[in-house]
Specification:
- The complex is a heterodimer of chains A (331) and B (254).
- Chain A has a single domain, classed as Up-down Bundle (Ferritin), CATH 1.20.1260.10.
- Chain A is built from 12 helices and 2 strands.
- Chain A has a two-stranded antiparallel sheet with strand order 1-2.
- In chain A, β1 and β2 form a beta hairpin.
- Chain B has 254 residues and is mainly alpha-helical.
- Chain B has a single domain, classed as Ferritin, core subunit, four-helix bundle (Ferritin, Up-down Bundle).
- Classes of the chains: A mainly alpha (331), B mainly alpha (254).
- Chains A and B meet through α2, α3, α6, α11 and α12 of A and α2, α3, α6 and α7 of B.
Chain lengths: 331, 254
């Protein structure tokens, strides 16, 4: 699961500083390769800013996977039957597996997993805003698995057409697994939507709470985004936030309505003339509040990660100890 | 005979169901990502094994796996107390040692059950062993690795082993109606299985200077009764959590 890369003004303060020191010929060759549709590999020359932005992008993506495992993970032990319990365990395991793949992809650019995790824990590095909202009921896990993963698939399928080889290859596998999550999520949602009055109420309540974070999922509107032409040229960013949001609405609003659920936005409709969805302002102030650490679960999510980091330190120290190197391999 | 069969299969199934529950708690909180993934994978296997054991009873016209897992009273469970223990504030040494003891026991039990005269169980044991072999490999590889690393790791393992060894010992508590089961050729006596289990775990622990002393009857007293329907103090909280959703709307399908 993942949210879009959000580029804040302060992130690009140093934008271009290093670029001046770089050989224009090399940059031209690099851009020509990208124009030809070639993939950039770890050993290839790349501009400083390309490397920096990719590390940020992939690292945020990886962090989103491990933080994203937390809200759903707490429901594994409460899942109502074998079928759901096994599927949810497999799903959350996949998400942690995605983090592992993505940290490895980011490491090819020169930043270690340890450094990335330290930056997550210190708050320097971000993760998808959506995981700063709580999963209050079982229905939340169904909505997350269906709609958050649906958003993730749109985002990641887009990114998988990018220019950086290791990231693209990781994304191809991730999208394949996410498509199973979506099926699982939809199946769970259908059971609730066609179930008892209590189940239907639980589902509607979950959708009401998740709608705003879902609208935020692809990032602020294009009109508020800082310019990203260079990232588009380098195929780091492949679609605008609004394009992805429109795609999501187009694919999923009809399905949500079909299940007899309502969406908590009276202004949501598809304009027949423009073919685009119109909706109320989803409170972008809240989006920025959450990104800056003031969401309902920001502190808790990081506290859990710090706790796990602290509890596991002795194990990692043990694995690094010189004696361990002399153990005879067992298989 | 069906009563004895239910006792045997529930003992096997309940152990796997509950350890699967505890091991799943590690997803997202392991010491390294690879361990989150390994524990998630093992927990899935264990949960699936529980389902398969219950299913053998369902095939005889008894309740479904979901009914066994989510709709029983505490005294109808036959789990060993070892698998009911919590994760003690995410103490990885405790989790690893429990996994080591439990999966050694699984190996021993399943290898014996392959020869069971109850054919559906023998067939299932054969299938489960194919997955269990990786659990055992994971457990003893980590024990050996950490057992030969830092002083702190060694100390933590020792403390976990000392605490958990008596509980693991009681995994092989004599089952109700065990005489009938042994006579029917379903499985060897528990005391013999315990012996085989000791032969599996003790050499590894001895080689790491981590061998525990055998527990006295006094020590074992509070850990008795799991197979007879007596639950540990940790069970109620665990089971309330496991059934939180399913019991909220008993008529619902999920």
């Amino acid at each position: 699961m993942y949210g879009n890369l959000t580029i804040r003004p302060e992130d690009i303060e140093n934008w271009g500083k290093k670029v001046h020191e770089e050989d224009p010929q090399k940059i031209a060759e690099f851009e020509a390769r990208i124009d030809r549709g070639e993939k950039i590999e770890p050993q290839d020359w790349m501009p400083f800013e390309y490397r920096r932005q990719l590390i940020r992008l992939i690292e945020q993506h990886a962090h989103s996977e491990i933080i994203g495992a937390l809200p759903e993970g707490t429901w594994i032990t409460r899942a109502p039957n074998f079928r759901r319990k096994l599927a949810l365990m497999a799903k959350v395991q996949d998400e942690v597996g995605h983090a592992q793949l993505l940290y490895s992809a980011a490491e090819t650019l020169g930043k270690s997993r340890e450094e990335m995790i330290n930056d997550l824990l210190s708050g320097k590095s971000k993760y998808s805003n959506i995981f700063n909202y709580p999963a209050k009921t079982w229905a939340d896990t169904a909505v997350i698995a269906w709609l958050v993963d649906a958003g993730a698939i749109i985002n990641q399928t887009t990114n998988s057409k990018g220019s950086y080889g290791p990231y693209v290859r990781a994304l191809e596998r991730i999208c394949w697994e996410e498509s199973f999550h979506l099926k699982y999520g939809y199946d769970s949602v259908v059971y609730l939507a066609t179930g008892t009055p209590r189940q239907r109420a639980m589902l509607q309540d979950a959708l009401n709470r998740w709608w705003k974070p879902l609208m935020h999922f692809f990032g602020p509107p294009d009109s508020q985004s800082v310019h990203t032409e260079k990232l588009v040229r380098w195929k780091v960013k492949l679609a605008t936030n609004d394009e992805m949001r429109q795609q999501f609405l187009d694919m999923y609003v009809p399905k949500i309505w079909e299940l007899g659920l309502s969406i908590p936005d009276p202004n949501l409709r598809k304009n027949p003339e423009t073919g685009r969805w119109e909706y109320s302002d989803p409170d972008w102030d809240e989006f920025w509040q959450v990104i800056n650490g003031n969401g309902p679960c920001n502190k808790e999510r990081l506290a859990v990660r710090r706790f796990a980091e602290e509890k596991g330190r002795w194990v990692r120290d043990a694995l690094r100890s010189p004696e361990a190197k002399y153990v005879t391999p067992l298989a | 005979m069906i009563e004895a069969l239910e006792i045997l299969l529930l003992s096997l199934a309940d152990d796997d169901l509950l350890i699967g529950h505890r091991e799943a708690e590690w997803i997202g909180l392991g010491p390294i990502l690879e361990e989150d993934i390994a524990f998630a994978s093992i927990a899935q296997d264990e949960t699936g094994h529980a389902q398969a054991y219950y299913q053998l009873l369902t095939d005889l016209g008894l309740p479904t796996p979901d009914e066994y897992a989510f709709k029983r009273s505490a005294s109808q469970f036959r789990s060993a107390h070892l698998v009911e223990l919590p994760n003690f504030d995410y103490d990885y040494a405790m989790a690893l040692v429990r996994h080591f003891f439990h999966d050694a026991a699984e190996q021993v039990r399943l290898e014996a059950l392959r020869q069971s005269s109850y054919e559906p169980l023998a067939g299932l044991a054969e299938r489960l062993l194919r997955e269990e072999k990786y659990h055992w490999m994971h457990a003893h590889t980590w024990i050996r690795r950490l057992g030969r690393s830092t002083e702190e790791a060694h100390f933590r393992l020792r403390s976990a082993i000392d605490q958990l060894f008596p509980y693991a010992w009681m995994v092989f508590e004599e089952l109700p109606m065990e005489t009938e089961m042994v006579e029917a050729g379903w499985l060897p006596p528990s005391s013999e299985l315990r012996q085989r289990w000791l032969e599996k775990v003790m050499p590894i622990l001895e080689s790491l200077n981590l061998a525990p002393t055998f527990p006295s009857e006094d020590v074992l007293l509070p850990m008795r009764g799991g197979r007879h329907g007596l639950r540990s103090p940790y069970f109620d909280e665990l089971y309330a959590e496991m059934t939180e959703v399913s019991s909220a709307d008993p008529d619902a399908e999920w």
